[in-house]
Amino acid sequence: MNALLPFYPWVKALHLISVIAWMAGMLYLPRLFVYHATVAVGSEASETFKVMERRLLKAIMNPAMIATLLFGAMLAGTPGAVDWRAMWFPVKLILVVMMLAIHYCLFCWQRDFAEDRNSRSAKFYRVMNEVPTLLLIGIVLLAVAKPF
């Protein structure tokens, strides 16, 4: 018997809590960028957005992402949790990697705003705000329905 098996429900709960926290940030940070892109560089509003964006990324999103990956790996390593012959899991992992890539983009864009180097429009960030939602839908459907 695997040592993780008795803790599986707890690890799963921690994984879900971490995912929710991470996704809250992934959905909110691009929305902050939409508003930030519409204010003048150096304005009081711009400086306020910089603080909000930095804190959201560093205090919530990064730790939640790390916890999500850690608890997800623990779940995947629990015997019987994943049918390694099924295709849903590798597809889900591809979507998770795509989510990590979006997280990295958000990190880079936050840095651009912090250094007053943003060159993207509010419309760009409005569109990018939808990408984590679409990835999340795919990930959840694959993890819950295991369609293939």
Characterization of this structure:
The chain has helices at residues 8-36, 44-76, 88-114, 122-128, 131-145. By secondary structure, it is mainly alpha-helical. The protein has one domain (5-145). The longest helix has 33 residues, at 44-76. The two termini are 28 Å apart. 24% of the residues are buried.
Mean pLDDT: 95
General form: elongated
Hey, roughly how much beta strand do the residues contain?
A: under 5%
State the total count of DSSP E strands: 0
Low-confidence regions = none
Terminal residue distance: 28 Å
Looking at how many chains there are and whether they match, the oligomeric state comes to single chain
Cα-based radius of gyration, to the nearest Å: 18 Å
Helical residues, percent: over 70%
For the report, how would you describe the main beta sheet?
Answer: none
Tally of helical runs:
5
Count of all domains: 1
Write the layout of secondary structure elements.
Blueprint: H1 8-36, H2 44-76, H3 88-114, H4 122-128, H5 131-145
Helix pairs in contact: 1-2, 1-3, 1-4, 2-3, 3-5
Question: How would you briefly describe this protein structure?
Answer:
By secondary structure, the chain is mostly helical. Helices cover 75% and strands 0% of the residues.
